UniProtKB/TrEMBL annotation:
Comment field (misc): The active site is a redox-active disulfide bond.
Enzyme class: oxidoreductase
Domain FAD/NAD(P)-binding: 4-319
Superkingdom to which the source organism belongs: Bacteria
Family matches, as NCBIfam families: lipoamide_DH
InterPro entries per record: Class-I_Pyr_Nuc-Dis_Oxidored (IPR050151), FAD/NAD-bd_sf (IPR036188), FAD/NAD-binding_dom (IPR023753), FAD/NAD-linked_Rdtase_dimer_sf (IPR016156), Lipoamide_DH (IPR006258), Pyr_nuc-diS_OxRdtase (IPR001100), Pyr_nucl-diS_OxRdtase_dimer (IPR004099), Pyr_OxRdtase_I_AS (IPR012999)
Catalytic reaction(s) noted: N(6)-[(R)-dihydrolipoyl]-L-lysyl-[protein] + NAD(+) = N(6)-[(R)-lipoyl]-L-lysyl-[protein] + NADH + H(+)
Name of the featured protein: Dihydrolipoyl dehydrogenase
Cofactor: FAD
Length: 458
């Protein structure tokens, strides 16, 4: 039986990052993976979807070339080539993880791993033992009873990335990050898209101003949006699919070629031996303490299988903290109130901290600042004037409570707010930090100035 200091179960952005940090700290480390290194994120999620979205964005630029004083005879797209490029990007990233495993002398064990008592892992009949076992098995597309996925007419995000042909009509059920990103992609490619969202606003976890702006931008792009709506029945017996949608006005039947179910995720915790080991689970989440220890000594869990936000960067951060704690380092528990969230449609969305509604519900007296990209020189020059930066400060102490952005490139801007909040920066300190002009990022400074009645450019 092979013996390790640490075995990591799963090689997504939680698992492989954890394994690398463990190796850096001097632990003899192995990682178990049943499919491809990089997990869902690199192979079927974060990375290949961004490749699809970039193709859509370039195609949109081509279609609007005249807006930039350029002439293109006719913009055309090759759907198969777009998908092929996306797969190529994913394969390249997965090979990059293979290289990182070799570089860091991490043993890769290919196969399906199950936990055993006594700090052991069984991989397709072969047992391995370790002083510490870290569960990082991630999650998959969640299915609703009224919307069972058949992989052909009712699909999840995985099938949406590799459809053999582009559908003429698509219904997207759910308007979180996955739903709106695919809605944007397929709409840009020429598919007629309808979003069905159960809650009153699309991207419902975002600040309401952001939700309303995205709805305006999407409708302008030709995406149909139904909020406060629920798919109650699906008929796949014909050539396409018929969805019965319940709204406040009654029932409506929508017809399409394909329905994309984007109603969240389900953790991969079945059949991995949790019951055999005695690890406590609450619904579909493994319960852990602040340093990701389960109730059974020697067993840990990070990423989507735990109660924190199901985001790649959260899984990576949790894994690093977990192994640093195992190594005896002094580490602080992760601040889940300062985790940025990003959505990569056009316009992009990025946010961190409290929404305006949440801040007021918590009893804060707030200062709100908002700067529209329509007043930004860089946004005007780039032809991307939709959106804004919105900031929320505690009026009493100047604490930066929240930052919410929608517009071109904002996912690359949100880190300023994350770092500033981590350092407990006040609004006045942000104002005195000179921002370069012309940039999209100066909209952050302008929004802060607006909160303190010092804004210059609006």
């Amino acid at each position: 039986m092979s013996k390790y200091d640490i075995i990591v179960l799963g090689s997504g952005p939680g698992g492989y990052v954890t394994a690398i940090r463990a190796s850096q700290l001097g632990f003899k480390t192995a990682i178990v993976e049943k499919e491809n290194l990089g997990g869902v994120c690199l192979n079927w999620g974060c990375i290949p979807t961004k490749a699809l979205l970039k193709s859509a964005q370039v195609f949109e630029y081509l279609k609007h070339a005249e807006d930039y004083g350029l002439k293109v005879k006719e913009a055309e797209h090759d759907f198969d080539a777009v998908v092929k490029r996306s797969r190529g990007v994913a394969e390249g990233m997965s090979k990059g993880v293979q290289f990182l495993m070799k570089k860091n002398k991490i043993d890769v064990i290919n196969g399906y791993g199950t936990l055993k008592p006594g700090k052991k892992v069984d991989v397709d009949g072969t047992e391995y033992s370790a002083d510490h076992i870290i569960i990082a098995t991630g999650a998959r597309s969640r299915e609703l009873p009224s919307l069972p996925q058949d992989g052909k007419k009712v699909i999840g995000y995985r099938e949406a990335m590799t459809l053999p042909e582009q559908p003429k009509k698509m219904i997207v059920v759910g308007s979180g990050a996955i739903g709106v990103e695919f809605a944007y992609f397929y709409n840009s490619m020429g598919t007629e898209v309808t979003i069905v969202e159960y809650l009153p606003n699309i991207v419902p976890v975002e600040d309401e101003d952001v939700s309303k702006q995205l709805e305006r931008s999407f409708k302008k792009s030709g995406i149909n949006i139904m909020t406060s709506a629920e798919v109650t029945k699906v008929d796949t017996s014909g050539d396409g699919v018929k969805a019965t949608v319940k709204t406040a006005k009654g029932e409506e039947v929508l017809e399409a070629d394909i329905i994309l179910s984007a109603v969240g995720i389900k953790t991969n915790i079945e059949n991995i031996g949790l019951e055999d080991v005695g690890i406590v689970v609450d619904r579909d989440k493994i319960l852990v303490n602040s340093f990701y220890q389960t109730n059974i000594p020697g067993y840990y869990a990070i990423g989507d299988v735990t109660p924190g936000q199901a985001l790649a960067h959260v899984a990576s951060a949790e894994g690093i903290l977990c192994v640093e704690k195992i190594a005896g380092q002094h580490v602080e528990a992760l601040d889940y109130g300062n985790i940025p969230g990003c959505t990569y449609a056009t316009p992009e969305i990025a946010s961190v901290g409290l929404t305006e509604k949440q801040a007021k519900e918590k009893g804060y007296e707030v200062k709100i600042g908002k700067f529209p990209f329509s007043a930004s020189g860089k946004a005007s020059a780039g032809g991307n004037k939709d959106g804004f930066v919105k900031v929320i400060f505690d009026a009493k102490y100047g604490e930066w409570l929240g930052c919410h952005m929608i517009g071109a490139g904002v996912t690359d801007m949100i880190a300023e707010a994350v770092v500033a909040r981590k350092l407990e920066t006040t609004g006045h300190e942000v104002l005195k930090a000179v921002h370069p002009h012309p940039t999209m990022s100066e909209a952050v400074m302008e929004a802060v100035a607006a909160a303190y009645d010092e804004v210059i450019h609006i």
